[in-house]
Amino acid sequence: MTTFGTAKKASFTGSSASLGAEKLAQRPITNIGQALEGISAGVTTTSTSGQPGSSPDVRIRGFGSISSSNSPLYVVDGVPYSASIANLNNDDIQSITVLKDAASTALYGARAANGVVMVTTKKGTKGKNSINVKYTKGFNTRALPEYDRVGPADYYPLMWEANRNNLAYRATSPVAIATANATASAGLGAIVGTGYNVYNVPFASLVGLDGKLNPSASLIYNADDLNWEKAIMHQGVRDEVNANFSGNNGKSDYFLSVSYLNDKGYQIKSDYDRFTARLNMNSQMTDWFKVGANLNTTITSSNQSTADGGTSFVNPFFFTRGIAPIYPVYAYDPASPGSFLKLENGNLRYDYGNLSALGLSNRPQYGGRHVVAETLLNENFFNRNLFGGRGFAEITFLKDFKFTNNVGIDITNANTIVFGNPEIGDGAPAGRASNTFENITNYNLSQLLTYNHTFGKHTVDALVGHENYNLVSNSLDGSRSQQILDGNYELINFTTTTNLTSQKDLRRVEGFFSRLNYDYDSKYFVSFSARRDGSSKFYQDKRWGTFYSGSAAWRLDQEDFMKELTFIDNMKLRASYGQTGNDGGISNYAWQPLYALGWNNATEPGILQSSLGSKTLEWETNTAMDVALEFGLFKNRLTGTFEYFDRQSTNLIFAVPLPLSVGIGTETRNIGSMYNRGVEIQLGYDVIRKKDFNWHIDLNATKLKNEITKMPQESKEIIDGTKKLKEGSSLYDYWLREYMGVNSETGVAEYRAVSYVASNSRITANGDTVTNNIANAKYRYHGTSIPDLTGSVSTSLRYKGFTLSALMVYQLGGKIYDAAYAGLMGAGYHNAKHVDILKRWVNPGDVTDVPRMDAGRTADFDAASSRWLIDGSFMNIRSVTLAYQLPRSVLSRFKIDNAQVYVSGENFLMLSRRSGMNVQQNFGGTTSNVYSPAKSLVLGLSFSL
Amino acid sequence: MKNKIIASIALLLGLTTFSCENVYLDTNPTASIDANAAYSTTKNAAAAINGIYRSFIVRYLSSQGHSGHPAMMIILDHMGEDLVIGTTAASWHVGETRWTAHRSDVNTMAQFPYEMYYRIIGNANIGIANIDKSVGPQADKNTLKGEALALRAFGYFNLVQLYGKRYDATKKPNSQLGVPLVLEPTTTGLPRNTVEEVYAQINKDLSDAAALLSVNRVNKSHINLNVVKGLQARVALVQQDWANAAKYAAEARSGYAPMTAAMYVDGFQDITNSEWMWGFDHLEDQTEYFGGYHSYISCNYNSTVIRTYPKVINNLLYKQIAATDVRSKMWVETPTTANSIVPPGGVRPKFLNQKFRLPGTPSTSAMGDVPYMRAAEMYLIEAEAKARLNDAAGAAKVLKDLVVTRDPNYVQSVKTGTDLIDEILVQRRIELWGEGHRFFDLKRTNAALNRNGTNAIASVALLFDVAPGDVRWEFLIPRREIDANPAIVQNPL
């Protein structure tokens, strides 16, 4: 499968990788994006969130853009696909092909600058009618454990220390150590909450003057009472059933499928319920006219987890990770410590942390909030209906000519409801709801005229075409508060409107293109193409861009001089060069200076400056070249590709940060250049090749170098979070304060200083000037999140009816900025602590890199710095499948063609430098409180009649 | 023949679908309008000026606790000694209370006011540059330009007090660095002007605005002549220009009578209050939810802040309020369910705030209005200025005119000199609690921050003393500005 047509692998001049139905069928993947991980050298993905149905991010050959999109274009059945790929049923897919080089993707134009993922759905196959049925059942659990955190026995003394050290070491009026010790021991209860003593000795004597837990203290609650993770996570059940019916009589073919999936995440109230149906029919009606249609519908409803990576109280990962180990899920009975309060129905009462009316003390951390109760009582779900259609009519005339008219339409209607309950949390005390309707319609029309002629040893294949893409999105969003009756989340059941808005947006692209393929004697292949694209995002004088590409291949194995080398079965040298424009990721109206509506001042209409616009903004250009050697040796027992690629991005579009003092934050400009260069290696080897026993191993590796080569004159350096963009740096080079460890005399965190300031600096024995004030800390580069090497190893072992296949992905090098870990290493009060905090500085002379606990110095001690970087190497056993094919002899008795049972797992094992760290969360290498990946295990049964 | 027919059909199909014109690629948004239309007519210009007022009350840097100018009002009081966090459960505004947040150049607290006030200035600059070209009545243009000038002055007045060293009238010209004076639409960063230059511009803009504006306006959310004079009084007070402070303050409050004791109890959530000169009229569909002023400052909105660490008043200050003064009821020393209102499950620490109270118990909405300027402040400015001009009798009289409306038993002060000034300042602290004046008052009077002996909780506040002249009286210029503006320099660390 390739751009606007198909090509035999042997004659294909581009770079691609495919995955067929046989490899997809048995994997329990709800979103086909998950199948792209490890598919090929040069393709990297993030880990998919544990929320069922979510998509990973995909990058093909590095990072082509800074502000524009870096995501590949999905093309389904030949037409660009703008709806969510979560709508696609894994079992309908015949193949997934990743097109990596610009020459192959150039004809898709504007949206293909970052590569193309082509998805082809199944058709009826010639010869017979067939019925296939598949059923799987399995479950989801958490693939990565939580970070290792301290328990109550360490937590109380840590809080004691945070208080004591603040009193004893503060800059103004410090307190004598002995007094500070006494104050900290006496004041422990006031800090952690007077009702939150999980031990059998009173607070006043829980932590002694030496800062140690009273040795006679023993827990009066069991560990599960304090385990919030357990209360909100469970084993999610996954059920899937598929049936399809197909046939082909030579003139006409059909494929009809229906499927149902119910995939429950390992967090409560997170699931994905999907029904799909597809009908693909094609008919050669006369010898010159062919017509076909591929219609599908998907109906999805899903409860969405609120784990958005942020620090809101309703984020289960933020809450359960951060809550200190002394706060119980259920409310203690203040009258009888060690037991719990009950509701009238006999159930335990949740401790909201603000039950002062019942005599409980207020929880100082996350008081009045309770992620378990809020998750259960709130709602956050969507219902989404998709209708998709692909159709074509093909006319053959004058022997060598063909005219094809293609139409593709994807219509998504979605309704999202978010409800905040009136009892606890953001919706309290009256309840609130928001309700969003979206209607997204996109259509893609293309007309192709092709000419194909062979004379002698020459074959010419020419194409001219035109395409237009139109995206219309409508949304209506309303919120109301003050719920009237329980259990109804529709807005009519609320009294006060807090938001009501709607808008309609339009995006259009038009392109003209042509391509010429030529081959001589199936030995030499060349291809040229040109495409002219216009985008509605740019001003009329700048909106059209023209992009060229060319590629060539030479099949050495067809040459006479190679014939003698009999061990060579296949050898091809190929090269390609191509350009594509990129306009993704920026506003639909990027060129226009705008004032935004919606800034009303009470009842008076109001508008406010929102964008400067730019009439000179134009296409970002991606120019890619690659050279490769493909080979098959020893009867194709050893196959492989060595490939070099170089992607140059020029005219990079960037939201350039302006000085805040000019009153508007950014201006979108074409600012610079960047390259991605790399080497890809793919090898496949048949270790065993026998009739009943096969063993095959595939291995791939990619080494990527990304570098920014040009920045704009007016902003030579741009700091973006933990990164700084600058000529000579990569897109993902860390720019951080340099952590210099802990002063062994005082226990303060020290950073390399900008300059010596007597009040906060010192010169170390090594001659370094260090400071304990972050405002004086010096920033510098600290490596990159881009790994030294990425790749995958997959293997498949078949013995008689048994097949065992596995896929492992890996990364060597690259750094992770583990912000989620940093959140557990704070020097202050009220948060769970990572076990590494036990290495903190305690007494003068202690040599450690963890500063002292000190509630007054958190800004300096916990600051963003190189302290939070860690090696990003990891290994993930992404998928393992064991299948058994029932013997034909048995099946024939039941008139069954084929039957299989299998077990399959995703995210079997994830190993990295730190337990619990989600290395593949994003390409920038930072971690946060996201829904960590799921481990899925299913048992499947499939048969064909 | 057959081939020809097919070819014609193909051509026809091709032609029909190729006929896309260039307008196909001209698209326009529905949620925004062309910036060039913003000042094409005075009607549109009025919307653009209204947008600026709205930009006062929205969230900045996506931070709930930093929702615009009302958040600054709360934070600047937290940085003083009078607005106290009531329990150790505090999470919002702790770094501000400890004076660490504004001293880290990457902290929201260094960036958010800088970004907000410059956004107000940037939008006002567009208005000032374009309003004369718009189509519409000259009277409307005058009003809109006057508002834009006053808004710009308001922005700079806040910025220079936050980021510049204190103005000292004995050391003219004040050559210490203020903030860059950006006076027309641009994308280029400028260097910092001196504090003297910034004040000169503020005074010029305010007097230009005064010449263009009248006391009439559509809504109290707009700046009119009274508000301009109120701002002139504030500026003069900070510049120790006592004569002008007294003059403008007296003129500014004309037409705005102090509340009666009865009105006072409900006096801090409704813009229609007779004493409010300028404020924001909050409607339900313009909510910032938990980010709004009353989500932090009220006593009965159901937010985590108010439930678990409500605001209390400095106990030493509270003790100076007479029992007969209605304001003694605006905080409750020993709160109980009978004498105070809190949200469900809310705590009741001592000296609990009841000053800002929304309708309803508990309030289901955070939609209280926001008081930017009240006539009471003008009485206090006039009294203080007169006292500093050694007009003790005049000062005491103005003070009495205000305080007697709160406390019928109040007797006109017979104090003079520093004693009288101190009495006026105590009244000022009581009257303007929670309205954003304390940090600026300490700074302009060159006073120390002193929380010793108050009910500030040691483990929350951490900081008890800051001497006058300490570098921490200046906010740091945000890192974001330093990165994008090569002309800028940082304040002393």
From TrEMBL, chain B:
Protein name, as recorded: RagB/SusD family nutrient uptake outer membrane protein
Cross-referenced PROSITE patterns: PROKAR_LIPOPROTEIN
Gene3D superfamilies, per database record: 1.25.40.390
Domain SusD-like N-terminal: 107-236
Signal peptide: 1-22
Major location (coarse): membrane
Keywords on record: Cell outer membrane, Membrane, Signal
Domain RagB/SusD: from-to ranges: 351-492
Domain of life: Bacteria
Family: Belongs to the SusD family.
Matches recorded under InterPro entries: SusD-like_N, SusD_RagB_dom, TPR-like_helical_dom_sf
CDD domains membership: SusD
Pfam family, one: SusD-like_3
Subcellular localization, as worded in the UniProt entry: Cell outer membrane
Source organism (scientific name): Sandaracinomonas limnophila
